Amino acid sequence: MKNVPRTVSLRAGQIEFVKLNVESWHWRDAYQWLLALTWPQFSLLVAGVYIFLNALFATLYILDHNCVANMPAGSFAHAFFFSVQTLATVGYGNMYPIDFYGNVVSTIEIMCGVFLFAVITGLIFVRFSRPVANIVFSRSVVIAIMNGRPTLMVRIGNLHLRSMVEAEFRILFNRDEQLSEGGDFRFFYNLKLQFDRLATFPAALTLRHVIDENSPLFGATPESIERDRVTLIASVVGIDPVIPAAVQTHQDYTWRDFHFGERFVEIYTDHGEGKLSVDYAKLHDTEPA
């Protein structure tokens, strides 16, 4: 089949990308699209397909009012509920096909029902079994003096009731930079973190990048990050120990989310005897450094 160029809108965090002249939609894309739907959207779609399919076959049964026994002529309601019974292969026995046309339509409907329920069962299983990172990121990025050196910090919290294991953390920094030939270009930098891997990630932590002479943020000011259209992407990759399976999530920040001269408030309280409490309500809160 010949691909027809089209326009596709893709939102990545706070930025929307409009793809021009991309290949046309492929039928296998439907699987990814169905898995990406929210549960309310998925439920409405399944209900809509189910009602539409029964309405379609009910119309076919009405075309020959003598094809189903005990079905009043022209009664869409009776034809619809007979279709529901046939699609689910319930077969109460009160209404049943009695001629060749009725048997052919009911056979096709039963085949459609077997296929439909198999597909829906598979999709529901995948949606339930798919692990979710369930990580929350701070709404802002703070830059403040820490241990005598300017430090960029992003706080993240694990909302799961269990620890994530083999967690890996990354922060990608990108901005516009002037070229010697003229004009500007988008440059990307992986920021060096004080730690980028943990064997276990139970609660909440703060990712830290020291802004030294080798940092792309060295000498940055609120005015410079706005001018350079700075964006930041923080990502977490880990393993859900129950499945076990890898999970990933990320959060993007623009220059508007940078807070200079602020730090995150303390959310840990030590109760002694190895017991710590973590107040997630304060995860986004900041204070002057």
Give your account of this protein's structure.
The protein has 289 residues and is of the alpha+beta class. It has two domains: 28-129, Helix Hairpins; 135-288, G protein-activated inward rectifier potassium channel 1 (Immunoglobulin-like, Sandwich), CATH 2.60.40.1400. The chain has five helices and 16 strands. β14 (268-270) and β15 form a beta hairpin. α2 crosses α3 (76-87) and α2 (39-63) packs antiparallel against α4. It starts with 5 loop residues before the first strand and ends with a strand. The model has no long low-confidence stretch (mean pLDDT 90).
SSE ordering: EEHHHHEEEEEEEHEEEEEEE
Largest sheet: 5 strands, mixed
The appropriate CATH architecture of the largest domain is Sandwich
CATH-assigned fold name of the largest domain: Immunoglobulin-like
- The total count of strands amounts to 16
Percent range for β-strand residues: 35-45%
Number of helices: 5
Determine the fraction of residues in helical runs and give it as a percent range.
25-40%
Distance between the termini: 61 Å
Average pLDDT works out at 90
The CATH H-level homologous superfamily of the largest domain: G protein-activated inward rectifier potassium channel 1
Unreliably modeled segments:
none
List the helices and strands and how they pair.
Layout: E1 6-12, E2 15-22, H1 29-36, H2 39-63, H3 76-87, H4 100-129, E3 135-137, E4 141-146, E5 149-158, E6 164-178, E7 184-190, E8 197-201, E9 204-210, H5 222-227, E10 231-240, E11 245-254, E12 258-260, E13 262-264, E14 268-270, E15 276-278, E16 286-288
Parallel strand pairs: 4-12
Antiparallel strand pairs: 1-2, 3-5, 4-5, 5-9, 6-7, 6-8, 6-10, 10-11, 13-16, 14-15
